[in-house]
């Protein structure tokens, strides 16, 4: 299918773009469905469900930083998980959490 885009009106081009966007979305939807089905079948062949293999894993969201290293502002910590070494060292040297808070 060849189009002479230069001979088309703006309305025709907008309609064509809309049709192309719809077609691409449809193709992506079909490909995702095919990939999901293949993944489910592969899991089933090994005696699992897809949910069992992914442990219901969901993407994690970034958490805002609550603390900053006074010696290096590029080093921050959200207050979750393991304390960074710079945070522990600062506390050991007499700093308080309030001193390190952003």
Describe the structure.
The chain is mainly alpha-helical. The chain folds into 2 domains: 5-54; 67-100. It is built from 4 helices and 2 strands; from the N terminus they run H-H-E-E-H-H. It has helices spanning 10-45, 50-54, 85-92, 97-100; strands at residues 67-69, 72-77. Strands 1-2 form a two-stranded antiparallel sheet. The longest helix is centred in the N-terminal third of the chain and has 36 residues, at 10-45. The chain starts with 9 loop residues before the first helix and ends with a helix.
What percentage of amino acids are in beta strands?
5-15%
How does the major sheet shape up? 2 strands, antiparallel
Tell me the distance between the termini.
59 Å
Task: Count structural domains.
Answer: 2
- The total count of helices amounts to 4
Radius of gyration from CA coordinates:
27 Å
Can I get a quick summary?
With 102 residues, the protein is mostly helical. The chain is 52% helix and 9% strand.
Task: State the main characteristics.
two-stranded antiparallel sheet; 9% strand
SSE layout and pairing:
Blueprint: H1 10-45, H2 50-54, E1 67-69, E2 72-77, H3 85-92, H4 97-100
Antiparallel strand pairs: 1-2
């Amino acid at each position: 299918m060849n189009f002479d885009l230069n001979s088309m009106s703006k309305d025709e081009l907008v309609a064509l773009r809309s049709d192309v966007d719809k077609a691409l979305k449809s193709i992506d939807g079909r490909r995702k469905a095919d990939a999901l089905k293949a993944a489910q079948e592969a899991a089933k062949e090994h005696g699992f469900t897809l949910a069992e293999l992914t442990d219901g894993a969901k993407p994690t969201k970034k958490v805002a930083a609550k603390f900053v290293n006074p010696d290096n502002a590029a080093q921050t910590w959200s207050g979750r998980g393991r304390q960074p070494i710079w945070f522990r060292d600062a506390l050991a040297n007499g700093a308080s959490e309030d001193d390190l808070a952003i």
